[in-house]
Design brief:
The longest helix is centred in the middle third of the chain and has 30 residues, at 34-63. The radius of gyration is 17 Å and the shape is flat. It is an alpha+beta fold and 130 residues long. It starts with 33 loop residues before the first helix and ends with a strand. Strand 2 and strand 3 form a beta hairpin. The chain has 3 helices and 4 strands. The structure holds iron/sulfur cluster (SF4) (2 copies). One iron/sulfur cluster binds next to helix 2.
Length: 130
């Protein structure tokens, strides 16, 4: 098996509306590069996996009322987070959104720990549900 695509290899450049790239062109207006297309393809795979996870969780919940895959949830330390977006890209449940810093939707997080492992700043930890 050859090497697959790598997630979260480092902080990504985030261009906001109105900002320009180092080449002086608008951030998202340029023709999509191979990297952009790869990112879109990977995001589509994430959405597919998310849908499958939800379907499986629904099925398990149907036979085991009260089932939760984990009693852990991810929490972000806003003092350490630099808003790089890596966690948002790797979360299989789409539970993280990043503006200035990352925020976790506790109702979607299943405590898988992927974001914890990928965060370059060590800004995320898993904690037991209260
Ligand atoms: S929590 Fe970590 S991975 Fe997520 S945006 Fe902040 S620094 Fe990046
Ligand atoms: S622990 Fe898993 S499900 Fe929860 S926010 Fe992190 S990557 Fe997403």
């Amino acid at each position: 098996m050859g090497p697959g695509p790598r997630y979260g290899s480092g902080p990504r450049a985030r261009t906001r509306p109105g900002e320009t790239t180092s080449k002086g062109s608008p951030g998202r207006a340029a023709a999509p590069s191979d990297r952009d297309r790869e990112i879109q393809a990977l995001k589509q795979k994430v959405r597919t996996i998310e849908a499958r996870l939800r379907h499986l969780n629904d099925r398990i919940g149907g036979v085991e009322p009260g089932f939760r895959p984990s009693e852990l949830r991810a929490y972000v330390d806003p003092e350490r987070c630099v808003g790089c977006g890596t966690c948002e890209e790797v979360c299989p449940l789409g539970a993280i959104s990043v503006e200035e810093v990352a925020r976790v939707d506790q109702n979607r997080c299943i405590g898988c720990g992927t974001c914890v492992a990928q965060c370059p700043r060590g800004a995320i930890e898993l904690k037991s549900l209260p």
